[in-house]
Amino acid sequence: MASMALLCSAPSVVNCRNLEVNYLTYLDSPVGRLSLYSDGEALTGIYMESRKPPLNALPGGQIAVLKSAAGQLKEYFAGARRDFDLAVTLHGTAFQQKVWEQLKKIPYGETLSYGQLAMRIGQPTASRAVGLANGRNPVSIVIPCHRVIGADGSLTGYGGGIQRKEWLLEHERNMAR
Questions:
Q1: Which of 73, 132, 137, 146 is the most exposed place for a label (fewest CB within 10 A)?
Q2: CA distance 73 to 52
Q3: Separation CA 2–CA 5 (nearest Å)
Q4: pLDDT tier at 177 (50, 70, 90 boundaries)?
Q5: CA 88 → CA 9, 106, 132, distances in Å?
């Protein structure tokens, strides 16, 4: 039981109720090293910052969805891909799921404000909550949380850092021309 407590207290993408196995691989990209996670069937996370891998993370370089995700991300960074075709599993509240679903609908090379996103989910006064849900998006780039900006057009909050957000937006604007 002590090992279970240790596992469940570790910061990770582990689902402690089911003790899911996580597969992990890395991809070097123009925005730094990306950590790609999978449950073996779907992509469950893409993280830009160094993150301590879950205790149960297994090497995932040969997992089909991770190989596909790495390939599609390389195409995205090369300017050859605008949309992703990957199985993705997102764990979050109903509100977060609603926000993340709307993020997928923001076109490549375009942006929305947090307020506009709140209106799209039918909760026009929930821009702060939308910002929090946006920040909890576990699958950055594929679920394009970087496309959400401040009401005044400023680049605000991004889990991977403002410089990366700026790079991603500029990359998409350049490729969309």
A1: 132
A2: 22
A3: 5
A4: confident
A5: 24, 17, 20
Domain identity same for 132 and 159: yes
Q: Which of 126, 145, 148, 168 is catalytic?
A: 145
Let me know whether 127 and 68 are in one domain: no
Digit-coded pLDDT (tens) for 102-124:
999 999 999 999 999 999 999 99
- The domain in which residue 52 lies consists of 18-89
> Could you tell me if 113 and 134 lie in one domain?
yes
Note whether 111 and 148 are within 8 A (CB). yes
Closest-CA residue to 76 (of 155, 176, 147, 161) = 176
Q: Which residues of 148-172 are buried (b: 16+ CB within 10 A; e: fewer)?
A: bbeeeeeebbbbbeeebbebbbebb
Specify the range with the lowest mean pLDDT, choosing from 44-53, 66-75, 81-90, 124-133: 44-53
Q: Are residues 133 and 61 in the same domain?
A: no
8 included as an active-site residue = no
pTM of the model: 0.85
pLDDT of residue 50: 63
